[in-house]
Amino acid sequence: MIIHNWGEIEYSKGREMMQAVHSKALKDKKNHLILCSHPNVFTVGYDEKASFYVDTVKCDRGGSITCHSPGQNIYYFCFQVKSPAFFYKRVIDSFGKFFNKYLPSVQFDKKNPGFYIGKRKIASLGFRYSQGVSLHGVALNVNVDLNFHSQVNPCNLSGIVPTSLKNEGIFLTQNEVNKEMVNFIKESFI
Fold this sequence. Notes:
The structure is a single chain. The protein is of the alpha/beta class. It has four helices and eleven strands. The protein has one domain (2-188): Bira Bifunctional Protein, Domain 2 (BirA Bifunctional Protein, domain 2). The longest helix is centred in the middle third of the chain and has 19 residues, at 84-102. The protein is globular.
């Protein structure tokens, strides 16, 4: 697995760079994991029909509205995918291992894809597959401004509010979370 650590990068620039990594993965047949975060932005999946009270950026992943901001760790997967269902299960397992270690009350909701503690959403995920290689990934709230994130319901789900590791009493830095997650992802994709 090849790791690309970009730090904070503007969303549209990050999308362009992810496309370039996707092209590279098509050629070298390797798994590429991108670690980054974005300045404040709301993104909306291509299939979302609702309109929102905040400015949004349309993107080519599935799903509804997602909030990105500093303090959120993003994991973009440009992985070789023979079976999207098997790939998706491995991604969920990776994050499940992290949450089992630090915050066992977190559950994955299959019906409304994401990781939740009751009615509080801590991580969102959305993927696309092109020519056997995945795009997009998972956004995990480590230490975000919950006032900014609370401008919309996560994934446009009624009664759901955003939360973060810090808000739930887990005081890890973004780098510490990345270290752990890279190990869990490697373990799940062996």
